[in-house]
Amino acid sequence: MAAPCAEDPSLERHFKGHRDAVTCVDFSINTKQLASGSMDSCLMVWHMKPQSRAYRFTGHKDAITCVNFSPSGHLLASGSRDKTVRIWVPNVKGESTAFRAHTATVRSVHFCSDGQSFVTASDDKTVKVWATHRQKFLFSLSQHINWVRCAKFSPDGRLIVSASDDKTVKLWDKNSRECVHSYCEHGGFVTYVDFHPSGTCIAAAGMDNTVKVWDVRTHRLLQHYQLHSAAVNGLSFHPSGNYLITASSDSTLKILDLMEGRLLYTLHGHQGPATTVAFSRTGEYFASGGSDEQVMVWKSNFDIIDHGEVMKVSRPPATLASSTGNLTVSILEQRLTLTEDKLKQCLENQQLIMQRATL
Q1: Coil, helix or strand for 104?
Q2: Count of CB atoms within 10 A of residue 284's CB?
Q3: Which residues fall within 8 angstroms of residue 255, CB to CB, at 6 or more apart?
Q4: Hey, what's the torsion of the CAs at 212, 37, 248, 32, to 10 degrees?
Q5: If you ran DSSP here, which 8-state letter would residue 303 be given?
Q6: Which of 20, 92, 185, 197 is spaced 20 to 30 Å from 357 by Cα?
Q7: Which residues 6+ apart lie within 8 Å of 71 measured at CB?
Q8: Which among 266, 193, 202 is positioned nearest to 229, based on CA atoms?
Q9: Distance (Å, rounded) from C-alpha 148 to C-alpha 357?
Q10: Could you count the other beta carbons within 10 Å of the beta carbon of residue 338?
Q11: CA dist., res. 200 & res. 218, Å (int)
Q12: What CATH number belongs to 10-310?
């Protein structure tokens, strides 16, 4: 477990209003708003300030599968089984514009860090990139051979990563529109993928109950976690880059310490599958959603206390160090002052992971 001085994550509040399973959650940049989408076709915008009325946005004709605030927080994107993406102004009016080009369910939507474009993934087997303000479809990335569950921009906006039911994770160059690499280590459908805040690696969740972390420069598998007893449906990096949180159909959320390569916490809150999880932009909070129609907001607590001064969230995201000889060492640069024994242990652990990966 965490150091004795650390506090455990605590359930801060929960929001009730959805009438079916919650599928997605996302915080606004200033953490004043939390958006959630549901199988009930409604988009809810909850206010973190107590006693504030939530906004319920209607417009989608079928289940909402994904939601993402723009970097400025002035826009909110959602995707749906009705094959459309909608961009909303998250105020009391709830006005929206529909974007149409996909021919099947839209599974994922994510804004680029400059807010000028966004990327979507769909059951039509394509990843599509759109211009936000011109409200225009730009281009498709079409090499997946099954449904695409998730697509995300890298922090610098130059790369796109996608996860598919074809059991692959693909890395794309946005400018050349070429597939740079395919990661094929998952034993089942890949449900979710995201970039580490440094942009140097990616984490993917799978129906095979695993989470895998790869270096996007060397394409080596850095870490492999088999901690859940059912499919992993979503994940989110803490903005410091030191922690990863996962949501699973086994009903739990798990918090992983990426520096130590170990499980920190298992959280039991949802009745039934936990479908989605997301850290706030500062990492002070995280939100989760489940098949129980609940949206839960948790206070992280561990993020600053656990590692003292190292973990102040105002620090720039740490980057992952890699490759010592032919071994990949997933230790954060901030922790490279580890004792030789600790470093040796890390190397041995990674060697075991790499051996398992090649079996």
Answers
A1: coil
A2: 17
A3: 9, 243, 244, 245, 263, 264, 265, 267, 302
A4: 80
A5: H
A6: 197
A7: 29, 111, 113, 114, 115
A8: 266
A9: 24
A10: 14
A11: 10
A12: 2.130.10.10
